[in-house]
């Protein structure tokens, strides 16, 4: 059995909490590795934290100013070569279908690193990513390693709802981010894909803390229940509206954008039920997309929702933005949506969707200044490629 298959088998057979030890042992034994480290991206996507038997026992490294960060950002291997016979350090992105998880750093003797080894190590990092996703059902180790600080209970509930923070398919690339990462209120996003459609939900709930998280959980799970029952987009919105109103009797409500894209044609259905906004970048020009506004979920009993149609074209970029972004005022009183948002969308147009939300939120922090955020800030970025 060749060495790659031996490492793959070791990962498949490893206990959920022992993946790091398994890949370390296998790479040392079969690739002559000097050291092997797994670093996980934190919730704010600003640092990479080493994973050990006890999480966070070593210093984190910056996503923006480190060799592992270069591999993480570019989603390509980054090689550090020493002088002469010094070991080579290979930093390999660990991701699953476009969802960036972290970086596997492998230190090797210079004579042990060649083109075949580079290809095999990249595949091993991909296998490790899939095994981590499966292992997270049975261990908290990798979730703990993503935390630079303690999450509030509300944030814990919100993060558990999310499908991921990025996703790639031939027809599209998706990226999303929530801030403040460790104390989320009621904003959320959800997506699911099939052979023929992408369904995307962006929600902005009322309130703070546990109450906001409970409202969002109810709405998201009602939408999922309706979607998995095969209901139309309008019926999904109606069922979620009834669930929220039935529990809260109109005392609270939840804003939502609900979209369904045909992967073959780019034809899309959308229901605009509240405050999240949609922007489009077409031919390099950003513009707000005006939709037919309908009532938020749970405001009144038996609200009927109607679907609006539009079409996305290959090379279009769509951004979905919460009011915690576009309503933020500068110290001088200028709303972010007046001019700064357009500048941020334009300046990030060459970045991949997985990096756009973080970059725009960084610009938002500069616009806000020293004032603490008083609402969630959420951005979802969708690049549409279409089918040949």
From TrEMBL:
InterPro entries: Bact_Sigma-Reg, PPM-type-like_dom_sf, PPM-type_phosphatase-like_dom
Cross-referenced Gene3D superfamilies: PPM-type phosphatase domain (3.60.40.10)
Pfam family, one: SpoIIE
Keyword entries, A-Z: Hydrolase
Keyword Hydrolase attributed: yes
Domain PPM-type phosphatase residue range list: 171-384
Name of this chain's protein: Phosphatase
Species of the source: Streptomyces alfalfae
């Amino acid at each position: 059995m060749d060495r790659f298959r031996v490492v793959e088998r070791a990962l498949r057979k490893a206990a959920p909490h022992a993946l790091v030890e398994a890949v370390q042992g296998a790479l040392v034994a079969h690739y002559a590795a000097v050291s092997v480290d797994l670093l996980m991206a934190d919730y704010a996507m600003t640092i990479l934290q080493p994973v050990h038997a006890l999480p966070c026992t070593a210093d984190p490294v910056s996503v923006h100013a480190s060799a592992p960060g270069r591999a993480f950002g570019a989603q390509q291997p980054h090689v550090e070569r020493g002088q002469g016979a010094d070991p080579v350090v290979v930093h390999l992105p660990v991701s699953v279908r476009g969802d960036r998880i972290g970086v596997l750093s492998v230190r090797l003797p210079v004579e042990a690193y060649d083109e075949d080894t580079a290809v095999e190590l990249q595949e091993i990092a991909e296998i490790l990513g899939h095994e981590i996703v499966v292992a997270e059902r049975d261990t908290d180790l990798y979730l703990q390693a993503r935390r630079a600080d303690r999450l509030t209970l509300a944030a814990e509930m919100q993060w558990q709802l999310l499908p991921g923070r990025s996703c790639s398919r031939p027809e599209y690339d998706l990226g999303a981010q929530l801030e403040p990462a460790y104390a989320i209120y009621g904003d959320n996003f959800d997506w699911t894909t099939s052979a023929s459609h992408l369904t995307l939900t962006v929600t902005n709930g009322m309130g703070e803390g546990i109450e906001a998280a409970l409202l969002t959980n109810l709405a998201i799970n009602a939408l999922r229940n309706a979607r998995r029952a095969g209901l139309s987009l309008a019926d999904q919105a109606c069922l979620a509206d009834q669930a929220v109103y039935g529990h809260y009797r109109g005392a609270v409500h939840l804003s939502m954008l609900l979209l369904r894209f045909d992967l073959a044609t780019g034809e899309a259905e959308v229901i605009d039920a509240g405050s999240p906004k949609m922007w489009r970048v077409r031919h390099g020009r950003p513009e707000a997309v005006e939709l037919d506004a309908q009532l938020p979920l749970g405001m009144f009993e038996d609200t009927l929702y109607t679907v609006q149609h539009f079409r996305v074209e290959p090379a279009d970029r769509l951004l979905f933005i919460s009011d915690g972004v576009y309503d933020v005022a500068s110290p001088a009183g200028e709303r972010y949506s007046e001019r700064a948002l357009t500048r941020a969308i334009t300046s990030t147009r060459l970045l991949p969707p997985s990096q756009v939300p973080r970059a725009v939120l960084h610009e938002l922090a500069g616009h806000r200044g020293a004032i603490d955020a008083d609402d969630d800030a959420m951005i979802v970025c969708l690049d549409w490629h279409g089918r040949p």
